[in-house]
Write a structure and sequence with these properties.
Elements (H helix, E strand, L loop, with lengths): L6 H13 L34 H7 L5 H12 L3 H6 L6 E2 L4 E2 L11 E2 L3 H19 L7 H4 L1 H7 L15 E4 L11 H5 L3 E5 L8 H4 L5 E5 H7 L15 E5 L5 H11 L4 E3 L2 H23 L6 H4 L9 H12 L3 E4 L24 H13 L16 E3 L2
Helix pairs in contact: 2-12, 5-11, 10-11, 12-15
Bound molecules: 2-acetamido-2-deoxy-beta-D-glucopyranose (3 copies).
């Protein structure tokens, strides 16, 4: 999600976030091999290294939202309240009166005055988070190999992880309606590590989606909503489940500052280097698809893909995370079908256009069939086997 988002887009985004993942899954012959269908037994063949198109790589490496993101960061770090109280962040702050509405968040149940010591403390913390994040907002191709360090944070009681051991099996569970009547609940729960998306509830759906959750992966709009609840309640999976989010608006660092203090389980923010990597990869797939399908020049891509609002989905980044911290990755509930609901847990009809689900699906197919074709990733990174369950 782009960071200079306008309020109307925030609403759209929240719906989009809830929409999670929907693209057509067309992989055949990948499931049902071994116990969970992993293709351990495959003979490694020598394949020619993929040839990346430099023009596409360069194009995908440009973030159209970079300038407005920089502006946002600079304004916020300077404490520019004018924009906050009158502009696009109005939903967060009460306009005019210079009050920040954190009633639901402050334990004492009163709005915090902008010039109060409590707000000042939050503000300093907010600035610190934001500055650190921004300093780190650079591309690095070896970021996939560093994701394993997250495991240590997720599970400090596990000494094995000190040695950089990964989870043996991971399930990434999308929210597509194709999960209904799938009976995959037990299969999902049999994985050592289960990642769920955007707080989709499992209660009442256990048989098809399982009930185990090791990590709740969300976008920061979800935290923003949680932050309005009593003590930042954000735990559809229980208060001990760690939450990881990517920051889609810089102002959400304020929500983070409010919530991190009171959260029992770790509240983690994706590394901005990891965000950039994911953004480049999805844009590459989207642009390649666009050029192939339409034959139009590259510079027309932005017009048909929401330009600077274009963003990878939460599901895509969760899959990328799993690749970094797991020895085997299974993907569930990604994809759509004419006979299935959009979401297993909502009645939402359509999908939103700021994600290119088809492009993301092209990526998943490469992850299953030829991960070396995924651009922007260091040769040193070894992809784990990936299986897509339908
Ligand atoms: C790379 O892609 C661009 C844009 O589609 C195209 O014009 C160019 O011919 C491609 N280059 C190669 C070497 O295939
Ligand atoms: C954390 O580590 C403990 C001890 O090794 C293990 O029993 C537990 O399943 C781990 N938790 C997660 C979420 O991986
Ligand atoms: C959030 O709080 C935890 C526990 O208090 C702390 O270790 C962590 O550093 C905080 N997060 C950030 C980004 O500072």
């Amino acid at each position: 999600m782009k960071r200079s988002i306008r309020p109307i887009f925030s609403v759209v985004f929240i719906i989009a976030a809830a929409a999670t993942l929907c693209f057509r899954i067309m992989v055949s012959g990948v499931s049902s091999g071994g116990e969970l269908g992993y293709r351990n037994d495959i003979v490694v063949e020598q394949r020619p290294a993929p040839v990346f198109n430099d023009t596409l790589l360069r194009f995908a490496a440009v973030d159209l939202a970079e300038d407005s993101l920089r502006q946002d960061v600079e304004q916020l770090v300077d404490g520019n309240f004018r924009d906050l109280t009158s502009g696009r962040h109005r939903s967060f702050l009460w306009s005019g009166r210079h009050r920040i509405d954190i009633r639901a968040r402050s334990a004492r149940g009163v709005p915090v005055q902008l010039r109060s010591p409590e707000f000042y403390r939050l503000w300093l913390e907010f600035r610190r988070y934001l500055q650190t994040w921004w300093r780190n907002h650079r591309f690095r191709d070896d970021v996939m190999s560093n994701l394993i360090n997250i495991v240590k944070i997720l599970n400090t009681s596990n000494d094995d992880n000190e040695k950089g051991l990964k989870y043996k099996t991971c399930a990434v569970v999308g929210n597509s309606g194709i999960l209904l009547k799938s009976d995959l609940g037990e299969v999902i729960d049999s994985h050592e590590f289960v990642i769920r998306l955007n707080n989709a509830r499992t209660r009442g759906y256990e048989r098809n989606v399982g009930s185990k959750t090791s990590l709740s992966f969300v976008n920061s709009n979800i935290l923003h909503l949680c932050a309005r609840r009593e003590r930042c309640f954000c735990h559809p999976y229980g208060e001990n489940v760690a939450i990881m989010m990517y920051m889609c608006q810089m102002i959400h660092f304020l929500d983070y500052a409010v919530c991190n203090a009171s959260h029992k389980a770790p509240l983690l923010i994706t590394d901005p280097q990891f965000d950039i990597l994911c953004a480049r990869i999805v844009k590459y797939y989207s642009v390649s698809r666009f050029v192939k399908e339409t034959g139009k020049p590259l510079d027309e891509w932005a017009g048909s893909h929401d330009g600077s609002s274009f963003h990878y989905s939460s599901g895509m980044q969760a899959v990328m995370l799993a690749l970094g911290i797991c020895e085997k990755v299974s993907i569930f509930g990604f994809g759509k079908s004419d006979s299935a609901k959009h979401h297993y847990h909502t009645n939402q009809k359509g999908e939103l256009h700021l994600h290119d689900y088809q492009a993301e699906y092209d990526l998943y197919r490469d992850l299953v069939e030829r991960p070396e074709a995924v651009p922007f990733i260091s040769d040193k990174f070894k992809f784990p086997p990936v299986v897509i369950h339908r």
